[in-house]
Write a structure and sequence with these properties.
The complex is a heterodimer of chains A (512) and B (337). With 512 residues, chain A is α/β, with parallel strands linked by helices. Chain A has 16 helices and 20 strands. In chain A, the strands form 5 sheets. Chain A has a 7-stranded mixed β-sheet with strand order 14-15-16-13-12-17-18, sandwiched between helices. Chain A has a 6-stranded mixed β-sheet with strand order 9-8-7-10-11-19, sandwiched between helices. In chain A, strands 1-5-4 form a 3-stranded mixed β-sheet, with no helix packed on it. In chain A, helix 1 packs across helix 7, helix 3 crosses helix 4 and helix 3 packs antiparallel against helix 6. The radius of gyration of chain B is 19 Å and the shape is globular. Chain B has 337 residues and is of the alpha/beta class. Chain B starts with 10 loop residues before the first helix and ends in a 12-residue tail after the last helix. In chain B, strands 7-6-5-4-3-2-1-8 form an 8-stranded parallel β-sheet. Classes of the chains: A alpha/beta (512), B alpha/beta (337). Chains A and B meet through helix 9 of A and helix 3, helix 4 and helix 13 of B. Chain A: It holds the Pfam family Aldedh. Chain A: This is Aldehyde dehydrogenase family protein. Chain A: Keywords: Oxidoreductase. Chain A: It comes from Microcella humidisoli.
């Protein structure tokens, strides 16, 4: 009897009460979409979970109109403390239904239940609790005495943290007094629909949050819609660039949280065993499907061999397999397309001359799987050191001096996050300021907190989520008045869309 | 780098080879202070992560038996009597009279003056130098405080060994360690190890108790673990059970990491014994998981792994009974001592 071969401990999916087909969530109701439907599958088994509606531009139009109505008639008139009550209620309902949400997320996304159970869902609740507390304190957010909501927010979120990204987007938007139309990623719409049920349970006024599902064109119809005041997008840099072009010149406010190629810098005096855990957590958490993943390991040259040796040994204890098994560390890759991208980039690494090592994991027959992989002898010029792979692939480079570490860490088009491992506090403090990254983790990695702002430099996007800064992205500082002429001329209306309008509650500048 | 050393080399000589040059206080300090630090937050997070492993029925049965087989059933009270020790031995041999498939424990652990009663009560079940049967472990060296002269500590040790103890659980001089006199601690461990040698040349196994609750920091625990191993400990042990906190999962994880690193460096396998405060089967299983994922399952034998516990066995027996009968019978279905 081998002990490490833990008996399978799968969480049962029977707790879920899923429908065979999901429509859209508009104006407080589940409605059918007017487009085709598509299947959402379990990445671990390739089995169909449910069919999902594909929202047309017309559907998006109806959703935006509902959000506008809810904004004008209800949400913008409600007191901050009343908005807070709804957010607190949502947070509590998320906690009550946490097991169900965790199971659904693992099933639909392929990430291990221990992550959805211990990280994703608790953070979702934390985000709503945090911003619920802000709802009646907006004048203390540092934006002047009376900051105003923007209006209707169009939000598009990625597939790597479906529910958490939804919370990052919706919680601050509602706390600030905006209404929302959100589009989850095509492959991971399921938990958004469960969240819609929670909104109904919470009696959230109709139209305050609307959910439209579908692929890219649905998202495009949403962000280009003339009647939205704010666009928030998390996803790939290419799509972010396209959105920035489409939004440019309009009155719409925009925040983008895009890709990353974070440097995780390990000095020779680092707390070694904890650094190994941090490297593992930095890149193999959520199969590496993390925009702030520590995918570039920069190790001080004199401890390179020891670190790699220990890392390989540690990776050999990682357990890959059924995401619903409570003992699984590494789940499935979210889609066949993503798996193909990871494979292609990894092959590139080998062709470029880097040395490939893959953990000895059994690959299940069905589903999309990629065993944890390390590339050593990587040069800064290699594609695997520059391009975001978004998978469980670590590229290892070395450095000799702190200055070289900083130079190499900053030598990337991205700048979302970074990590430093050293026991020497003075060095830590001296170096963090020189890293051009939105988040720098000290002796830890991939930790999130609603009170801490998160966002990027350079091609990792702009704007911040979380904390007071995240609130600012959904508020207009007092004293600013949108000129109506600019607003009306902002963008070419799409078919059926109304002309852009200024936010309902604009006022004249407050005289000092 | 791997240090190769011939079998039977004296600890002091081995330490000299490892540290290079003379084994001075300075060399020892440079080595111990040169170890990479321990990040408390990260260590505790890893331990918490290991605690979330889910063990299902088939693994659990194996785990429960392993806990019993690797347990040092312990009584260390001022009020201990020969009668109590005989009871303890009876329980060590047959932990659960209602189920003959229950394994015996690894050892009974008593004060030095109780060793003769334990040896007598064990009779033919006494391991007596071999690995089959039940060992007698004695705490020595002015347990639990360690506050006595070296001469007394050594006399304490020799007496227990002469009375038939197979294993000596010694405490380190925490005062010396905390004041930075690593050489004093090293020398004492070496001397106690010498005192464990029997007239026939064999020697009682030495478990070195760090009393991690008094060392306060993880960095200290890491240094003390290295120090004890360098000085020739066969086992390193967390606690006497008389100081709170006694064994914790993060401390045990950290000590296992040192044992793992020592094994990578020298190929030598050092044993580990968390002691004190482990009362529930559920907690004990988390320790087994930590062993399996840190040093490997090969450590889960009585030769390399022990639980120092008095009440843990009863909880394990109740869990075993529950697995057998399907219901939880309650504390009156196991013996109190």
């Amino acid at each position: 009897m081998a002990f490490l071969e833990y008996a399978a401990a799968p969480e049962s999916a029977s707790i879920l009460n899923l429908k065979a087909q999901y429509g859209l969530f508009i104006d407080g109701e589940f409605v059918d979409g007017h487009g085709d439907v598509f299947d959402t599958i379990s990445p671990a088994t390739e089995e169909v979970i449910a069919s999902i509606a594909q929202a047309t531009a017309g559907d998006v139009d109806v959703a935006v109109a509902a959000a506008r109505r809810a904004y004008d008639r209800v949400w913008s008139r409600m007191s901050g403390s009343d908005r807070g009550k709804y957010l607190f209620r949502i947070a509590r309902l998320v906690q009550e239904r946490s097991r169900e949400l965790a199971v659904a997320e693992s099933l639909d996304n392929g990430k291990p239940i221990r992550e959805t159970r211990d990280v994703d869902v608790p953070l979702v609740a934390a985000w709503f609790f945090y911003y619920a507390g802000w709802a009646d304190k907006l004048e203390h957010a540092g934006l002047g005495p009376n900051p105003r909501a923007l209006g209707v927010a169009a939000q598009v979120i990625p597939w790597n943290f479906p529910l958490l990204m939804l919370a990052w987007k919706i919680a601050p938007a509602l706390a600030a007094g905006n209404t929302v139309v959100i589009k989850p990623a095509e492959t991971t719409s399921l938990t958004a629909m469960l969240f819609a049920e929670i909104l109904q349970q919470a009696d959230l006024p109709a139209g305050v949050v609307n959910i439209v599902t579908g692929p890219g064109p649905t998202g495009q119809a949403l962000v280009t819609h003339a009647d939205v005041n704010k666009v928030a997008f998390t996803g790939s840099t290419n799509v972010g660039r396209m959105i920035a072009r489409q939004v440019a010149g309009t009155q719409k406010r925009l925040t983008l949280e895009l890709g990353g190629k974070a440097a995780n810098i390990v000095f020779d005096d680092a707390p070694m065993d904890q650094a190994i855990e941090g490297i593992v957590n930095g890149i193999f958490f959520n199969q590496g499907h993390v925009c702030c993943a520590g995918s570039r390991l920069l190790v001080q040259e004199n401890v390179h061999d020891e670190v790699i040796d220990r890392l390989k040994q540690r990776l050999s204890t990682l357990r890959m397999g059924d995401p619903l098994d409570k003992n699984t560390d590494i789940g499935a890759i979210n889609s066949a397309a993503q798996l193909e991208r990871i494979r292609t980039l990894s092959d590139t690494g080998e062709n470029e001359g880097a040395e490939r090592w893959t953990a000895d994991c059994r690959i299940p027959d069905k589903g999309f799987w990629f065993a944890p992989t390390i590339f050593t002898k990587v040069s800064a010029a290699h594609a695997i050191a520059r391009e975001e792979i978004f998978g469980p692939v670590l590229s290892v480079l070395t450095f000799r001096t702190p200055a070289e570490a900083i130079t190499k860490a900053n030598n990337t088009p991205y700048g979302l996050s970074a990590g430093i491992w050293t026991e020497k506090g003075s060095r830590m403090l001296a170096l963090v300021d020189q890293l051009r990254a939105g988040v720098v983790w000290a002796n830890t990695f991939n930790r999130f907190d609603p009170a801490s702002p998160f966002g990027g430099y350079k091609e990792s996007g702009y704007g911040r989520e979380g904390g007071r800064h995240g609130l600012a992205a959904y508020l207009e500082a007092s004293g600013w008045d949108a000129p109506a002429s600019l607003s009306a001329a902002s963008s070419a209306p799409t078919d059926g869309a109304r002309a852009a309008r200024k936010p309902a509650k604009t006022r004249k500048a407050v005289a000092k | 780098m791997t240090i190769t050393h011939p079998v039977g080399i004296a600890p002091a000589e081995r330490a000299v080879r490892l540290l290079g040059g003379d084994l001075t206080e300075t060399a020892l300090r440079l080595h111990l202070d040169g170890l990479t630090g321990v990040d408390a937050v990260g260590l505790e997070q890893r331990a918490a992560g290991l605690s979330t492993r889910s063990i299902k029925t088939s693994s659990k049965a194996w785990a429960l038996d392993t806990i019993i087989r690797t347990c040092d059933l312990t009584t260390l009270e001022g009020a201990d009597t020969p009668g109590k020790v005989r009871s303890l031995v009876a329980k060590a041999i047959t932990p659960d009279a209602s189920d003959p498939t229950t394994p015996s424990v690894a050892a009974v652990c008593v004060y030095g003056d109780m060793v003769p009663y334990a040896v007598e009560a064990l009779g033919s079940r006494h391991a007596a130098g071999g690995t089959e049967g039940i060992q007698v472990a004695a705490v020595a060296t002015a347990f639990p405080s360690g506050r006595a002269s070296l001469a007394i500590k050594l006399a304490d040790t020799r007496e227990a060994v002469a009375a038939g103890a197979d294993e000596i659980d010694m405490v380190i001089d925490r005062g010396a360690f905390l004041s930075g006199q690593y050489g004093v601690v090293f020398d004492q461990i070496v001397a106690v190890r010498e005192a464990c040698i029997r007239p026939d040349g064999s020697h009682a196994h030495l478990k070195v108790i760090l009393e991690t609750g008094e060392l306060q920091t993880y960095d200290n625990v890491k240094r003390a673990s290295w120090l004890a191993i360098l000085a020739g400990a066969d086992f390193i042990k967390t606690s006497t059970g008389k100081v709170s906190p006694a064994a914790t999962l993060p401390v045990t994880l950290l000590m296992l990491e040192v044992i793992r690193d020592w094994h990578r460096l020298t190929g030598e396998k050092i044993g580990m014994k968390p002691a004190g405060g482990i009362r529930a089967s559920k907690d004990a299983v988390r320790y087994l998981v930590t062993v399996a994922e840190t040093v490997g399952e090969e450590w889960l034998t009585p030769q390399l792994w022990r639980f120092g516990a008095s009440s843990l066995v009863n909880d394990v027996l109740l869990q075993r009974q529950k697995m057998r009968t399907g219901h939880y019978s309650g504390p009156d279905y196991v013996t109190v001592d």
